[in-house]
Design a protein that fits this description.
CATH superfamily of the largest domain: Butyryl-CoA Dehydrogenase, subunit A, domain 3
Radius of gyration: 21 Å
Strand content: 5-15%
Bound molecules: flavin-adenine dinucleotide
Strand order of the largest sheet: 1-4-5-8
Order of helices and strands: HHHHHEEEEEEEEHHHHHHH
Number of helices: 12
Oligomer: single chain
Low-confidence stretches: none
Number of strands: 8
Number of domains: 3
Structural class: alpha+beta
Mean pLDDT: 89
Largest sheet: 4 strands, mixed
Distance between the termini: 36 Å
């Protein structure tokens, strides 16, 4: 494990800091913008911020320069995330999620035409994406999904339903995992299609969650005609591509962006303890010290992931450790913060105007973190099999 940064890496961090100082509008430096999901003002700011990042060459710094990146190393990417955190930058609209997930998949498996068509509008925030994987009855057991895409000349005809599709209501495109090979074993019958969300036959129904937001949606496909050249990779390679996408979602995306959220949660808890004059209370001190240790532990795991990513280019099975530890640490932190607020927290509706409303929001939202991107139970199964070498459970 390497904890030291080279002079080039430190110069890179300093360049990023100066750029952020000059370009990040003061009005956007509000930490609460991190979580806001379905507010038109947030969407507008996040989209403008994405465009600014793109114009400055900061939207996908690890990508090659000719594709809008700056060829940065994983360490530089990490340092950039630290600078975003320090500057209090909001979450960009395409967020590292879409860029790291479908962007990386198109970079690796897409045709030249797909790269030319999709990468620039993805980075600049002109086009928003959603991830069409989960279905009713196919979440953890993703390979059992039933949405079908049948070939009809030069198009695929898609029928089926997706669920929990984050931001499908504002997305322009969907990367859709569907069944195209009907005579193959279930994992080998899947393909990844890029679907224009304005195609006739698609309907989207937002689902309200317990925070009051409607972050995700149900999406219905009825005889949706998708040009066959929008298939990524070869027919039947969808499972392999989807596993690469999910490994990024649990690994680098988690390391780079989720740690910012957890550090923010810790700052928020400390701020509330200070405001409520509870810093001298022994239980509060114990819990905050424990939370700080867990946040530090996550940071060290992040360094380990970076070292591995630098050496192998792959997140590896250990990304499941970060996913479990990160999501469960955040849940514990939210519970501590709720305890600090006492009746104020329990009595307030989730929102952003007052610190206690935000605590209620973050406490409720954190419940989803051990589910999204693969549940804690599934991650523990993966750790048992791939790291401990235990046999598959029944
Ligand atoms: C905030 C949020 C955003 C999301 N965004 C998206 C999105 O944009 N696109 C998308 O495609 N999906 C999205 N999802 C869906 C997410 O990927 C699924 O919820 C997740 O994979 C779990 O699937 P499920 O909900 O069907 O639960 P199930 O798979 O039905 O699991 C139910 C319970 O059973 C347990 N379980 C299941 N199988 C096993 C097993 N083999 N061993 C032990 N326990 C098991 C699970 O851990 C869980 O506790 C999102 C989810 C959340 C919460």
């Amino acid at each position: 494990m390497d904890f030291s940064f080279s002079s080039e890496e430190l110069a890179f961090a300093s360049e990023a800091r100066s750029w952020l100082e000059k370009n990040l509008p003061t009005a956007w430096r509000k930490e609460h913008m991190w979580t806001r999901a379905d507010d038109p003002l947030w969407v507008e700011i996040a989209r403008d911020w994405q465009r600014l990042l793109y114009e400055g060459g900061w939207a996908a710094i690890s990508w090659p320069r000719e594709l809008g990146g700056r060829g940065a190393t994983v360490v530089e990417r990490w340092l950039f995330e630290q600078e975003l955190d320090r500057a209090g930058a909001p979450r960009p609209i395409a967020s590292s999620g879409a860029v790291d997930l479908i962007g990386t998949a198109i970079l690796r498996h897409g045709t030249e035409k797909q790269k030319q068509r999709f990468l620039k509008p993805l980075l600049s925030g002109e086009e928003l994406w959603c991830q069409g994987f989960s279905e009713p009855g196919a979440g953890s057991d993703l390979a059992s999904l039933r949405t079908r895409a049948e070939r009809d000349g030069d198009v695929f005809v898609v029928n089926g339903q997706k669920v929990w599709t984050s931001h499908a209501d504002i997305a322009d495109w969907c990367f859709l995992l569907c069944r195209t090979e009907f005579d193959q074993p279930r994992h080998r019958g899947l393909s990844l299609l890029l679907v224009d969300m304005r195609t006739p036959g698609i309907s989207v129904r937002p689902l309200r969650q317990m925070t009051g937001e409607a972050e995700f949606c149900e999406v219905f496909f009825s005889d949706v005609r998708v040009p066959a050249d929008l298939l990524v990779g070869r027919p039947g390679s969808g499972w392999e591509i989807a596993m690469g996408i999910l490994a990024h979602e649990r690994g680098p995306v988690w390391t780079f962006t989720f740690q910012r959220k957890i550090r923010r949660s810790l700052r928020h808890a400390l701020g509330i303890a200070r405001r409520r004059a509870m810093l001298g209370d022994s239980l509060t001190r114990q819990q905050l010290a424990q939370a700080w240790m867990e946040v530090k532990l996550l940071e060290l795991m992040g360094y380990r992931s970076l070292t591995r990513l630098k050496k192998t280019g792959q997140p590896g099975a250990e990304s499941s450790l970060e996913k479990v530890l990160g999501s469960e640490t955040d849940q514990r932190l939210q519970e501590v913060t709720m305890r600090l607020l006492d009746a104020l927290g329990l009595g307030s509706a989730p929102g952003w105007e007052e610190p206690w409303q935000r605590t209620t929001h973050d406490y409720l939202y954190a419940r989803s973190e051990t589910i999204m991107g693969g549940t804690s139970e599934i991650q523990r199964n993966l750790i048992a099999q791939r790291i401990l070498g235990l046999p598959r459970g029944s």
